[in-house]
Task: inverse folding
């Protein structure tokens, strides 16, 4: 899955051909959407809550420079170190620098999508550092050398037989078992030792509070708490858009996040970190380093419409509700963020010339927009990116990459036909005559692979209406 | 170099936003009817039980039925061997006093009284830990913990069973209410936690399994 | 909730390009249903397409040019009835966005206010009462995405079916999941589209219905096209055509 060789259509064909994947996904997404529905069963309460969430996120983005400076100031006052990274490469080097300062060769990691965005594990491996994923789902896919296929449930594409085989083959002295309880116990036993020995722990950040310099981490397993409490050094990596203004912003966002992500009122743990161990405290890291990553976010911020992409709180519910994600899974999207949010985020981060095919994978059915807890108008942003793909004067990197004379001409002709009754009537008249004799090429070829071609009527509605004497004005 | 990136990033986001910024106001949350003390206890208990916590409601000041007696019954039934506690805290001292009175089959009390670096091996072999709580949250069903120098963070994470003692007078309707009433914004501890149940995961086929990295059991004693 | 006007004397009918070319019977049935309630139907002959194909494909300028034409033609203040949740959604919710920076935006907004999806109009403005004269039949209903999520008219459509005494309506398991049409999506991503329509068809078969009804001919073209290809003997029709056939003399 190297980005340079990204072939979306090939990925899609491969995913659709995988019956096991289709069945795993269909079961899992059905279950997750049902759980979310149950938790937000009161429509009025949900609407009120998401209006709050939307306003909180928009306010935060509109004050981003001030909030980041305030967050930095507060965090430093609280005894943390704050680092700024423009690129993923810079962020990786900051992590490596901290590890080297402590002569550390082992990193235990909590779940973090930003660290996936950085390809941190690969980078650290290249520099002789063992970086171990400790979230169960991440642990499973790391054993298999894969990347997450879902923002919240990284190994959702696998069933227990596949996981049983992985554990048996990759963890020494592990018998084959499909019992989920036993698989969990194996992971617990294997990872406990690693927490114990961990020299540096790394985590993501679900939100950071500028008012108090607090990093909020949400999780169910306890591995996140382990990584941020047991090792003497804690590194937190965060996309710079994740800052919020006030502590009072946390409860509504938290409710939206856990309800949307997993259909929970609250996760097992909400971990709010506001500083390293004080001199008289007995545990907790002695150092905390917060890394603020830009990686294209500041550019996304500059467009008023596209800025809405940054409202995202990474709950993953748009994936669960997307009829396309549900069919092809996360890996087909080729980059770290899959599904509807990936469709708008990836092309903006990577450039349309690299990832501009992804926005074609949406029917614009609006299911994502309907459930988004912070009301990101994902379908509108997909339309915008489709437009940018053809627009030589666009603003997103790689804009206009798709513009071909043929495609532009087709739509110009379409507009012409639909503005002139005479031409329109001619086309309508010709359709039933031409359709059966047209070669099975282009769009029709694809359409007719699984469907009969549409039958055009011998007499159009326009003609019938006229026959019936229905008035024109 | 980091300085340079910082300035560049800040300059970029400032110019990205421009000067004209109309901040939306955050709408007020929907009002829900206030809950009585009993309703809050009941809601917390129901929600936490649903998340597989074991919740006991015990009178606070009854001389004939001390909460520590109930605690003894629970730990003996579970066959716990060693229990981590926090000397010098009200809960820790009450436990120590009750243990001093003796009883058969009680777990050995282990104080968490040294930095983790010197205590790690013992810590990772504990099968229980008992802590106080700062309060509870009724609407989501969660405990609030503010670990400190007396009651360190890992007491509620590393042992197999976490026993938490909650004063029923400190149950709030919501997280927002707890934050407001206790004025969290005026000063956060190094670590504040909400805990709603035993550690769990659904990463394998969405099957819920408990005790993946943190405690396998969470026992809550609500003192009324 | 949308505020509905009293019953008007005249309405405009926007036939949609797909109905014009491939499903004129559905368009005629819709017109008959409105006329039956004593309302005069005006059909401007210059009308064409709502512009959605270009809009959704990344060609807003072309969409705008076609939309301008419709704005020009449907100039009188009559309600505009549209037998498609998707086209109605385009004209009601997306026209104001297309013309957001246009000095004529207020005129566009007034136009959008006049847009009604057919079944919504029959239920809330015409308060239509139906008497079923047809044979007993079991049908199922496919909710098109834009009728559901942009226009919010699914209950209106289903309430009309429920008025028909001899019709048993069986709900689809994933009623609100997209059928995979998505306009140009079906030709840009034919494989995913086919996977989606296959699941939709499986759902339809499970209901045991003899016919699947819908309020959008795009979805129906996709679903019936795929069913015919697989030689599945379930028919699919626009709700207007189905109702008209069962109630008229």
Result:
């Amino acid at each position: 899955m190297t980005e340079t060789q990204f072939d979306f259509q090939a990925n899609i064909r491969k995913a659709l051909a995988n019956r096991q994947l289709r069945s795993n996904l269909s079961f899992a997404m059905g279950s997750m959407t049902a759980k979310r529905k149950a938790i937000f069963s009161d429509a009025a309460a949900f609407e009120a809550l998401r209006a709050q969430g939307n306003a909180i996120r928009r306010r935060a983005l509109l004050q981003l420079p001030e909030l980041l400076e305030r967050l930095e100031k507060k965090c430093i006052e609280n005894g943390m170190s704050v680092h700024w990274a423009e690129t993923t490469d810079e962020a990786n080097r900051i992590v490596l620098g901290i590890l080297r300062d402590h002569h550390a060769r082992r990193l235990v990691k909590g779940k973090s999508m930003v660290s996936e965005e950085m390809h941190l594990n690969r980078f650290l491996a290249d520099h002789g550092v063992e970086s171990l994923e400790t979230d169960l789902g991440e642990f499973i896919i790391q054993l298999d050398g894969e990347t997450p296929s879902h923002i919240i449930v990284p190994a959702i594409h696998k069933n227990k037989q596949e996981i049983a085989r992985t554990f048996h083959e990759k963890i020494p002295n592990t018998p084959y078992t499909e019992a989920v309880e036993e698989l969990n116990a194996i992971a617990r036993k294997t990872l406990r030792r690693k927490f114990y020995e961990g020299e540096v722990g790394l985590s993501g950040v679900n939100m950071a509070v500028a008012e108090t310099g607090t990093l909020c981490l949400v999780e169910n397993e306890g591995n996140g708490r382990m990584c941020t409490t047991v090792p003497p050094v804690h590194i937190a990596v965060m996309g710079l858009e994740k800052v919020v203004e006030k502590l009072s912003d946390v409860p509504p966002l938290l409710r939206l996040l856990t309800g949307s992500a997993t259909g929970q009122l609250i996760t097992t743990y909400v971990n709010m970190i506001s500083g390293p161990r004080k001199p008289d405290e007995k545990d907790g890291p002695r150092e905390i380093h917060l890394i603020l990553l830009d990686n294209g976010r500041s550019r996304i911020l500059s467009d008023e419409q596209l800025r809405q992409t940054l409202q995202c709180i990474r709950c993953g519910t748009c994936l669960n509700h997307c009829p396309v994600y549900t069919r092809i899974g996360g890996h087909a999207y080729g980059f770290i963020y899959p599904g509807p949010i990936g469709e708008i985020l990836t092309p903006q981060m990577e450039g349309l010339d690299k990832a501009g095919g992804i926005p074609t994978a949406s029917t614009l059915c609006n299911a994502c927009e309907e459930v988004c807890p912070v009301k990101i108008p994902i379908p509108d942003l997909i339309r915008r990116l489709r437009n940018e793909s053809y627009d030589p004067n666009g603003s997103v990197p790689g804009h206009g990459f798709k513009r071909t004379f043929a495609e532009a001409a087709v739509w110009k002709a379409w507009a012409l036909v639909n503005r002139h009754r005479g031409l329109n009537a001619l086309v309508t008249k010709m359709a039933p005559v031409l359709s059966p004799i047209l070669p099975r090429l282009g769009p029709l070829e694809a359409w007719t692979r699984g469907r009969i071609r549409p039958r055009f009527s011998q007499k159009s509605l326009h003609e019938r209406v006229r026959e019936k004497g229905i008035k024109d004005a | 170099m980091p300085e340079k990136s910082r300035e560049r990033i800040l300059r970029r986001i400032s110019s990205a936003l421009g000067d004209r910024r109309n901040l939306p106001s955050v709408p007020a949350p929907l009002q829900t009817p206030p809950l009585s003390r009993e309703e809050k206890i009941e809601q917390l208990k129901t929600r936490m039980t649903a998340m597989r916590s074991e919740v006991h409601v015990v009178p606070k000041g009854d001389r004939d039925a001390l909460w520590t007696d109930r605690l003894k019954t629970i730990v003996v039934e579970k066959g716990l061997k060693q229990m981590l506690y926090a000397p010098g805290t009200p809960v820790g001292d009450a436990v120590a006093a009750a243990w001093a009175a003796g009883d058969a089959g009680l777990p050995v009390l282990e104080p968490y009284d040294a930095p983790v670096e010197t205590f790690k091996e013992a810590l990772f072999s504990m099968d229980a830990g008992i802590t106080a709580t700062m309060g509870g949250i009724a609407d989501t069903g969660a405990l609030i913990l503010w670990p400190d120098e007396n009651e360190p963070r890992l007491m509620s994470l590393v042992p197999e069973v976490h026993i938490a003692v909650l004063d029923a007078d400190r149950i709030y309707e919501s997280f927002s209410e707890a934050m407001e009433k206790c004025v969290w914004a005026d000063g956060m501890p190094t670590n504040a936690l909400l805990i709603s149940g035993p550690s769990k995961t659904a990463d394998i086929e969405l099957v819920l399994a408990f005790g993946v990295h943190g405690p396998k059991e969470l026992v809550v004693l609500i003192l009324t | 909730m949308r505020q509905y006007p009293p019953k008007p004397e005249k309405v405009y009918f926007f036939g949609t390009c797909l109905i014009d070319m491939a499903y004129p019977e559905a368009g005629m049935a819709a017109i008959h249903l409105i006329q039956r309630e004593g309302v005069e139907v005006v059909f401007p002959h210059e009308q064409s397409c709502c512009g959605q194909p270009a809009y959704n494909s990344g060609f807003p300028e072309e969409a705008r040019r076609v939309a301008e034409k419709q704005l020009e033609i449907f100039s009188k203040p009559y309600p505009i009835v549209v037998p498609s949740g998707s086209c109605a959604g385009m004209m009601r919710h997306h026209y104001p966005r297309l013309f957001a920076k246009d000095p004529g935006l207020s005129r566009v907004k007034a136009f959008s206010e006049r847009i009604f999806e057919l079944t919504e109009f029959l239920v809330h403005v015409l308060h239509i009462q139906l008497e079923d004269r047809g044979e007993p039949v079991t049908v199922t209903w496919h909710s098109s995405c834009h009728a559901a999520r942009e226009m919010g008219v699914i209950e209106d459509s289903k309430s009309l079916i429920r008025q028909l005494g001899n019709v048993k309506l069986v709900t689809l398991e994933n009623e609100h999941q997209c059928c995979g049409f998505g306009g140009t999506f079906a030709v840009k991503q034919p494989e995913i589209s086919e996977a989606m329509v296959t699941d939709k068809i499986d759902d339809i078969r499970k209901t045991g219905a003899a016919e699947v009804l819908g309020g959008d001919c795009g979805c129906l073209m996709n679903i019936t096209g795929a069913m015919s290809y697989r030689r599945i003997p379930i028919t699919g029709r626009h709700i207007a055509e189905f109702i008209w056939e069962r109630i008229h003399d």
Remarks:
- Chain B has a mean pLDDT of 94.
- Chain B has six helices and twelve strands.
- Helices of chain B lie at 2-17, 37-50, 67-78, 90-100, 116-123, 175-181.
- Chain B touches chain A through 78 residues (CB under 8 Å).
